[in-house]
Design goal:
- The protein is of the alpha+beta class.
- It has 2 helices and 7 strands; from the N terminus they run ααβββββββ.
- Helix content is 18%, strand content 40%.
Length: 102
């Protein structure tokens, strides 16, 4: 039985095409991400957004409906949310955070 398994394994390996793939990851796309400096922090019913001057903060329900949109005018801005208790998604550009309002 062992001899059969060994022979069948060898035959399968011989029949399989050998391909080579590159494991090199180009760091250039990672360096182009400019949203890494944007932070979203929850403090009670307020949100502090840093590094997003000139961009919009979207408050989205879990069903995907955009509830509110706030324009961020300063480098470090506090936004008071008038939301009921629950889970929401906050999005600024490509930075997305799921938050729970208590």
């Amino acid at each position: 039985m062992r001899k059969f398994l060994l022979i069948s394994t060898i035959l399968c390996l011989m029949a399989a095409p050998i391909t080579a793939t590159s494991l090199f990851i180009d760091p250039a796309p990672l360096a182009q991400v400019d949203d890494a400096t944007i932070t979203i922090a929850i403090e009670g019913r307020s949100v502090v957004v840093s590094g997003a001057q000139g961009k919009d903060l979207q408050v989205i329900s879990l069903t995907g409906k955009i509830l509110e949109t706030y324009h961020i005018e300063s480098p470090n801005q506090r936004v008071n949310l008038n939301l009921t208790k629950g889970c929401y998604i906050l999005k600024v550009d490509k930075v997305v955070r799921k938050v729970s309002i208590q």
